[in-house]
Amino acid sequence: MSLNQLILGTRGSELALTQTTMVTQALQTAHPHLKIERQIIQTSGDKRQDLRFSEFSDVAQVDKGIFIKELEIALADRQIDAAVHSLKDVPSDLAAGFTLGAILPRAAIEDVLITKDPHTLDSLPKGARVGTSSVRRAAQLKWLRPDIEIVEVRGNVPTRVKKVLGENALDAVMLAAAGLLRLGLLNANLARIHIEEQTLCALVLDPAKFLPAAGQGAIAIECRHGDADVIAAVQALNHAETEARVTAEREFLKILGAGCQTPVGAHTWIKDGHLHMSVRVFNEANLSAPPVEREASRPVHEARQLAADLAAML
């Protein structure tokens, strides 16, 4: 490998920096002589945490990646060589000139219900106020519990966790297990959240019943298309099984024309050499309508065809 130095771009949140450290360590293991630097770049989504997603002036921009746009600009300008993303923040229809050089081994895909006292989705009090920034989570919550009030919450992971504490506390918040685990907030038995000397209750939801987001739990490394040396360097980190699963999930969104803020759940798993996927699609114009649910499977190497099969069933 002729590459001697690699500059990784990242958002500045604690989770983003933790994930970039993971990528850095993996790259240094794969390429001991490679010098790796980190550059923090603030994205639109980070700058305007006072806005709800629905309040961004350019609504289309939400689906085009408010958490990656500035990183792509830095990539195009060659300020950085690669960008580290939470894959679920990356639009399924990647902008021209860019490619995903590697997908790291996937962490937990589940969503987590966080409460002050022990609760399940069924036992939350009537009219409970539940915080989330995800329309997918909101749609599934309202489908399962129509009485629940959804409160949109923004901010980094610890900020959102703490919404169940203090004055005007929410009854619950929902977050991805992967981020909670990577930050060391969710304990080993997946039942408690420890934050600022407080202990909260955590309920990890069955992904077959509460479907995750496409790409949830996966870290992606984005590169300039055609930048062979950088792509070759990061390709050493690619995890084939994770790549097959997220390819099917993201291809399904792409065929549907769905973005990061579209209420679609997708769950994939591999069994006996076959890739299985179940999807749950809500009507954006009428979230109270029952979702459409489908399931199919194909050989692992036919991930894109599996997505097309499912899209054709809708």
What do these coordinates show?
The protein has 2 domains: 5-107 and 213-313, Periplasmic binding protein-like II (D-Maltodextrin-Binding Protein, domain 2, 3-Layer(aba) Sandwich); 111-204, Periplasmic binding protein-like II (D-Maltodextrin-Binding Protein, domain 2), CATH 3.40.190. 29% of the residues lie in helices and 26% in strands. It contains 10 helices and 14 strands. The strands form 3 sheets. It has a 6-stranded mixed β-sheet with strand order 7-6-8-5-10-9. Strand 9 and strand 10 form a beta hairpin. Helix 9 runs parallel beside helix 10 (303-313). The relative contact order is 0.16. Residues 50-63 have low confidence and may be disordered.
Features of the shown structure:
29% helix, six-stranded mixed β-sheet, alpha/beta, single chain, five-stranded mixed β-sheet, 26% strand, 10 helices, 314 residues, D-Maltodextrin-Binding Protein, domain 2
Beta content: 25-35%
Largest sheet: 6 strands, mixed
For the record, what CATH class of the largest domain applies?
Alpha Beta
Q: How far apart, in Å, are the first and last alpha carbons? A: 46 Å
Q: Judging from the principal axes of the Cα atoms, what is the shape?
A: globular
**How many strand segments?**
14
User: Can you list the strand order of the major beta sheet?
Assistant: 7-6-8-5-10-9
